[in-house]
Amino acid sequence: MKRRSVLKAISVLGAVAMVPPFVTGRSVMKRAEAVGVTVNDIMQAKAVLEGEIGYSAPAIMPQVINVFMYGGPSELAGNLSNMDEIDMTSQNNYDARLVPSRDGSRITANNFWSNAGGTRMERAIAQGDMTIYRTMMRRIQDTKAHRTSIVSNQTGMTTGDDAQPGMGTTIAALLSAFNVELENLSGSVVDGAGNPSIGSAPEMLPISDSLFPLSTFEGDSLAFSPGTMGMPSRVKPMSLDQNLNNPYSRIGGRLAGNAVADARVDELANSMMDQRPGVLKIREALEKRAAMDAFVGDISGLKDIALPADPENPLDIDGLPNLINYGNSRFAERLRAAVTLTLYNPSSIFVALNTDGGLGGWDDHSAAQGRYATRMESLMAALEAAAKHIRVVRAAQGRPNNIIINCFGEFGRNVNLNNSMGWDHGNNQNLYTVGGNDLPGRALGKLVGTTERVTEGTNRQFTEPTQDSFEFEPASVAASLYRYIGVSAESAAALTGGAAPIDEVGAPNLFV
């Protein structure tokens, strides 16, 4: 594969795909004009991708929620396997309850850190809602620098090159290049009584005409980097927050909450327009704004409807409904909003959010053990709830469980407890992956990977995969997503610069 020309083609088509239809109209060429792309550019880009990439449309289109843990999360919440050795040689001793030979009361059966989300990990794996990979290790161009690692993992490349398109952009570009249509709902996502509904009469549309295929709950995200293509701010993916505030509503002044006045504004605008092409664009934008206003309003309302009962524990001790509970952090609210969006909008294929908003970062150089455990407990509470939420609602809708949540960071951390009682930058880390149970080739309910302690002097201890362990590159996460949308495994690896998709089915399960 001529990777440079393929990536250039992805950048071209990704830029076009990300221009929303309400800005430039339904025509692909109108979108291309908005970012300075010519007809020839598009034809060449499509020819390159069609000639270089093996593609077959998937039976079930995945929807992806990418949760990024900025700062570099320690692996220890999900991997205390080597704790005796680590504590014995660490500059400073760990909490005795994390060391099996000293106490071990915070270590679960599968060597998770119980009050750092470990008990929840045990439940989620046993239920078949989660798989944890303990050996995501960067071997190709290893780096422990924040910026380079963040760029690499968010673009899905083995190198940290800012000129590469983000993995969300790449997915959009590939679907656009191969003319893949997404399911769009033509009806409301609530029924006449205001209850959740998947809508009716779905319409299949190309990604360029679909409703919010790309969304972010973190503002600008490298997952949506256009690569070498400059993009004006107005064509970026839809940005939302945990309250699902509606960016398409007319708010403030005399129009706020006034449907009559709102309709009169549209009537006045239409009466002033003629049929010139430029004016037709404005007319179409007004019509699209109204449709998007209604849709986001529906989704916002769904977020406030009570969650379903917990499928494993439907009643509390008083016999009352025990509802699924994401927790009370701002991150939990954002994840719930992201799950709600994907559950009721099938064309939302990639959603980006991070843990900074609500949990904080993971750059734990000092006073790590307590703060880290609290954050991990909140993170796992939200992921466990999200898995149940998806499972219950998809079953009620009679639709396949196609929503994947991937959670990881830029790198792992050393396991030596330094003199500031924290951990310095390392490499090996965990991948926590949830949902998508009905996607072909997906394997939930696993614990994968074995590690050993390695030392390079007193203050540098870390874990790495044992010689016989299953392992993969961080960019393999992106390669797996490309495979799920229909790209061949060989082409997916080439797109990332050499990281193969994760063999989820073949990975040995160590969960006991």
Shape verdict: globular
Instruction: Assign a percent range to the helix content.
Output: 25-40%
CATH architecture of the domain at 63-168 and 306-488: 3-Layer(aba) Sandwich
Per DSSP, the total helix count is: 15
* Beta-strand residue percentage: 5-15%
Mean pLDDT equals 86
- The top-level CATH class of the domain at 63-168 and 306-488 is Alpha Beta
- Backbone CA Rg: 24 Å
SSE run: HHHHEHHEHHEEEEHHHEHHEEEEEHH
CATH topology of the domain at 63-168 and 306-488: the name is Alkaline Phosphatase, subunit A
What's the main sheet like?
A: 8 strands, mixed
Secondary-structure content class: alpha/beta
The stretches of 5 or more residues where confidence is low (pLDDT under 50) are 231-235
| Spatial ordering of strands, largest sheet | 6-5-7-1-8-9-2-10
Number of strands: 12
How far apart are the first and last residues' alpha carbons, in Å?
A: 42 Å
